Amino acid sequence: MKRISLFQSFGAGILTLVGLISVPLYAATNPMVEAEASASVHAEMPTQHREFFEKYCTECHGPEKQKGKVRLDDISFRVDTLKKADEWAKILNSINSGDMPPEDAKQPENSQKADFLEALSQTMVVARKALSDQGGNITMRRLNRREYQNTLRELLGVEINVGTLPADGSSENFDTVGSALFMSPDQFMLYRELGRKALDLSFQMAWAESKVQKHHIEPELEVSQKMEKDLAYWNDIRKRYRKWTVQVDAAARAPENGKLVAELREKTKVTPAKFYLEWEKIGGAPAPKDFGFSDAIDANMMNERWETHVPYLVEYLTQPKAKTGAYLCAANIQRWVNAHVPDQWPAGEYKAKVRLAATKEAPEKRRFIDFVAGFPSNQVLSSHQVTGTMEEPQVLEIPFKLEAGAPRGFMIAEKSMLGNPDGFSFHDILFQEGYNANRVGPEFAVWIDWIEFEGPFKTAQVAESLAKIRADLERLQSDQTDVRRYLSNFAEKACRGRKLDEDFLNRLVGLYEARRKDGEKVQDAIKEPLTVLLASPSFLYLAEPAEQGKPRLLTDLELATRLAFFLWSSPPDDELLRVAAEGQLQKPEVLAQQVDRLLASPKSDRFVRPFVQQWLGLSRLDFFQFNIRLYPEFDLPTKANAKNEVFETFAHLLKKGDTLSKLLKSDSVVINGLLAGYYKIPGVTGDAFREVSLPSGSPRGGLLGMAAILAMGSNGEQTSPVERGAWVMRKVLHDPPPPAPPNVPQLNRLSGKPLTTRERIAQHQEDAQCTQCHRKIDPVGFGLENFDAAGRWREIDLRPGVPQKRNAIDASGVFFKGAAFKDFFEMRDLVAAKPERIAAGFTEALIEYGLGRTFGFSDAALAADIVEQAAKKNFAIPEFIHALVASTAFHSK
Amino acid sequence: MNTNLSRRHFLRAAGSAIALPALESLGFRAFAAEKIMVQPKRMIFLGFGFGVTKETWFPDVKQVGSGYTLPEGLAPLARHQNDFSVIQGLSNRYSQDAHWGSTFWLTGANRFAEPGQSFHNTISVDQAAAAKIGQETRFASIQLNGGDPGLVEHHQGHGPGLSLAWDAGGKPVAGLNSPALLFHRMFSPETMSLEKRQAMLAQERSVLDAVLSDAKTLQRGLTKSDTDKLNEYFQSIREIETRISKDEQWLGVAKPKAPIDEPSAKLHGKDEVKLMYDLMVAAFQTDSTRVFTYRQPTESLVASLGLKVGLHDMSHYAPGERMEASQVRDRAHSGLLAGLLDRLKGVRGADGSSLLDHTCVAYGSNLSTVHNLENCPTLIAGGGAGIKLGQHLVLPKNTPLCNLWLTLLRGVGVEAERHGDSSGVIKEIIG
Questions:
Q1: A485: exposed, middle or buried (C-beta count within 10 Å: 0-12, 13-18, 19+)?
Q2: How confident is the model over A298-324, as pLDDT tens digits?
Q3: Do you find a cis peptide bond into A376, omega within 30 degrees of 0?
Q4: CB contact (8 A) between residue B226 and residue A139
């Protein structure tokens, strides 16, 4: 059987692992290697590096002298204890920091030092990993924030905001890794608060009328009236200004003012309106105050503003459909249309239907709208392409959630005209451009006929949950059931089949009875024990108790729970529970069927998004703001859609059973109208993501051509080849660079000079401490330099100050100790030729996410099996999931 | 169940035993009654995450002792130069994570000390102090965090953790994220009657008993690592029990009147820091707590200074725009700290001594500069721990930072044998 080691590095086989020998994987001469999980996996510094010690270290740290009580001639190269790891860490640190060898001692050559440092850094990564290996142990975990929210939704039919709970997970761990999910006193109090909130809402909704309501808004009713008023206001200003200036002119004509007026006219001949600023000097001229202006400056300014305001307003009012709908404007007169949901409507799932059209004149890039939450958040909730025409308007359906107590106001505006960071105003620019061209303003692009709110909609599942809540409670109220049985039934569902201990149950009953004694009604008193239950360990922890502390196989019910949380981030549904109860779930074919069923459900989105987000580290995209002045097209809606592209692509491949290799290179992309515009791919309209074939020679298709991935490898202004290169090494090539070492002296020699990105980063080659990693990372990053910070294709790098003859992009390079490429396309082909690498990284991520524990050496055999099984099916994505779910590890505590 | 009850009885007994004398020595009463009495010791730990601009923050190593020239980065503190000392040469020897400015700052722990785990931490110095000097106040200690979104996930120069504080088991202690929350915790008056609150506390105990009962059932058959996990739950419940015991001790004592106005809920960056500092002084004035940690905002601070350079880019400064931004940030930090020292000096007791005379302010980060973890920037202000002030000390390279923490602990009267990886106290700075 062919097993592959997953822990080699790209170039050199520098590690020796007992039972897991590292060899360059895909070399033609690859010997077959048995990769067995073994407790004795350890790191070993390759012995050839003893020579480095002998040459540069042992004179002071050897048999004769042991400066600083450090002796290196007899140091063990096998790094298998924490103590040895700490010693070696110290050695690495002192060489990295430049302290050793001391300045006055013999110095190794740069490349020699870099090789030594590289080997040692890698050895330390292996050593730390081996020493922190959990040996396949899965730590019991509590529900993370997402799972907690989902579980409450399934149980109580309501969705509550869990944003007050501390965030789970970090850049180091998936948010399912039990050992990194903590509990604190404040958190316990929060669970009670949130649990109570969910129960209040659930009970309220269970008794509420479940009628779907409608609320219709004709925006012109508000808009036209406002416009007419506005027009009257401005015309009055103009009238008053005219009156005033006519009277000033009349006074100016008086003979005694003759000389002065001639001087003033001469002084203001460039801007004649400035003449009126001098009114006080002119005998008999009336004060602007008498005409309703605070002073002459105010009068002139208001008159000037009339020019940029009224023609656009008149233009608006004379638009063909201004009386039957509302046009969105670039200027403040009508930048957005308000839409208010009636205050008394309950929380829930709603739909906004919008009948709208793009005008004939609308340029392509202005055929989009944003659906925006009103004051105070002003957040863009979703963006939509407008495909309707004035002859045939479309009805857009926008689903949205209304939270209890949240503001009811919403707005519709052209894309990016509201809610930009930095207070940057696209609309000002747009208006100015239009006004400069025609002295009126830009064309009107989008017309809105009406808006209709509809809801609340209950999914069948929510309706069912609420009906059950109500029926159970009514039985309790009418004494058809006793409180003990009520609580016990509720708990069994809430705690995923776990039966409560008698003592706990008694105490919960006691809490209820105490409340009843205080005079509370049944439906109020019962909330207390339920709240406590929803903060209890039985509810919060996914417990799989061992037998006498030993590993064992999961029961059917436990397996169902683990599977549902893996693929749905929520508890098992009735069908899964039924299959488990019938004892069928352990049968391989039944289990496989259930995996397919779970993946086919829309709920699998709760796997796709959090998993892909964490696997690929996409949260970095939200980490910094893009400089909107440099990248106006990469606005917030575009950024959000670019991120969705990653999820949608993965979901599409998963659904089709397609291969993971398509993430490396593909002749199609999964995009919507907005992104098609951004990528300049013609013929795609609408908000829905779909597979679109690419023209030949397109750099898109695969992760390396996705705007989101490329934008993450920047700081919002400039590309970062280091960030991009390291990302590709980590996620695509499965050869993660060691963590950035501390205490390396910084290179500042060339700072302050205008340099191309390549010149700037070339400094890394000067110093062995930097070279050891950057010689691998940087070439990959340079290969992506044809994409600017926002992921658009470019041929030149417009860095300020860099002379033109140096700024043409050169994306050629050589993989360290590997193949050369002349441009991005060749680099992508080289990467795409090794799908095993991304498969290995994907598998490790899947194991970590699915089993809820960090990936360790003891998982090597499991990972190798999964990759091997998936390889047989050309790395079809569902195969990985099937293989993991079928594994013994997935079935064991 | 029995053990649970007896522990609780002990807590109660211990509570009532210390409650009365403690109340008499309350600082705020001392001020009110204008009586001369021994002022309690207080501590503040301020961690700013990403390091400093090396060239302009550290004093010249050739000028040691008093009368050294304050470098530009510390210049805003000039008026307080005699009230603080800058100490160089301190490091946490186990720290290796070059973007973690706070995770091990107050603990000195070895991340890898526990076999089979990739993360391990130990108690932080503030919690070690609070266990002793926090007994007599309504809050044993208060942890504060900057309100930056993304702090937990992206660390933003601080590293993993929920605040600067780590409990006795090395687990993260959660912190309050805004001045408004802190204000309400300390000063919002109780709206309920005493009887009602007593009844509520009793009910609260039944709730805790209930979940403890469940936890004990769950514990049966768990593996060691699962038991460790569940212990966090037990620990949380116990802490709430302790809080309730404290609440009971304090039932008859109304929350103090706030000496400052309620802060707005929307404060970011430097405004947040200033308000948090004001509230710390208010907390000491009313003796609500004696131990603070504050994991300061990084991203929002930089934004509030109008700096356009990204946080991480700034930490990797090089001459030019990035270095200038880094220096602006350093000076802003120092200016804010100077404001805190002003206010601590401004509050005086009947004996004429100021709050600062009895408070130890530790200010710094585990990150020195860029990716450097050696020579952690360290500034100690105030007379609380009895160390020499007005000094610039250069200790031998890589002196354990925990030696300083141990010195401070002893200085405020905590008889600790060691802290973290300490090898002893720093005799040179004991005043």
A1: middle
A2: 999 999 999 989 999 999 999 999 999
A3: yes
A4: yes
**Band of pLDDT at residue B14, cut at 50, 70 and 90:** very low
pLDDT digits (tens, 9 = 90+) for A674-713: 999 999 999 999 999 999 999 999 999 999 999 999 999 9
What pLDDT does A8 receive?
Answer: 37
Closest CA to B338 of B49, B42, B81, B72: B81
Quote the ipTM score. Answer: 0.80
Contact A552, A892 (CB under 8 A): yes
Interface test with A, best of B95, B117, B118, B184 (most A CBs within 10 A): B118
- pTM of this prediction? 0.84
| CA-derived radius of gyration, chain A | 34
pLDDT tens string A552-589: 899 999 999 999 999 999 999 999 999 999 999 999 99
Q: What is the dihedral of CA A870, A871, A874, A877, to 10 degrees?
A: 30
Assign A38 a pLDDT band (cuts: 50, 70, 90).
very low
Greatest Cα pair distance, chain A, in angstroms, is 114
Q: Closest residue of B to A532, CA-based?
A: B207
A542: tokens are 């996914």
Q: Which of A191, A519, A139 is nearest to B211 (CA)?
A: A191
Tokens representing A320? 């063909």
Between A110-131 and A768-782, two packed helices, what is the crossing angle to 10 degrees?
80
Which of B:303-322 have CB within 8 Å of A? 310, 312-313, 316, 318-320
Place of tokens 């503030």: B126
Distance between terminal CA atoms of chain A? 28
List the beta bridge partners of residue A336: A413
pLDDT digits over B143-190, tens only?
999 988 666 666 788 988 889 999 988 888 888 888 988 898 888 877
The whole-angstrom separation of Cα B17 and Cα B135 is 12
Contact A633, A641 (CB under 8 A): no
As a whole number of Å, the CA-based R_g of chain B is 22
B227-281 pLDDT tens trace: 888 988 998 898 888 888 888 888 878 888 888 888 887 788 999 999 999 999 9
Give the separation between CA B91 and CA A689, rounded to whole angstroms.
53
Is B336 within 8 Å of B354 (Cβ atoms)?
A: no
Extract the tokens encoding B101: 């400015």
Residue with tokens 């300490």: B422
Considering only alpha carbons, which residue of chain A is nearest residue B167?
Answer: A184
Q: CA nearest A158: which of A465, A424, A431, A389?
A: A465
Q: What pLDDT does A35 receive? A: 32
Indicate yes or no: CB of B371 within 8 angstroms of CB of A180: no
Q: Within 10 Å of residue A29's Cβ, how many Cβ atoms?
A: 6
Alpha carbon separation from B389 to A762, B85, B342, B427 (Å, rounded): 46, 5, 16, 14
* Residues facing residue A455 across a β-bridge: A213
The mean-pLDDT minimum among A185-189, A286-290, A354-358, B8-12 falls in B8-12
Determine contact: B428 vs chain A, CB below 8 A: no
Quick one: pLDDT band at residue A420, thresholds 50, 70, 90?
A: low
List the beta bridge partners of residue A414: A369
Q: What ranges make up the beta strands (E) of A113-247? A: 141-142, 213-217
- Contact call for B213 and A503, based on CB within 8 A: yes
Structure token pair of residue A186? 């404040």
Interface of B with A in 152-181 (CB under 8 A): 152-155, 160, 162, 171-174
Q: Tally Cβ neighbours within 10 Å of residue A267.
A: 11
On whether the CB atoms of residues B162 and B226 are closer than 8 A, the answer is: no
Beta bridge partners of A78: A44
pLDDT of residue B22: 34
Q: Are B354 and B344 in contact (CB under 8 A)?
A: yes
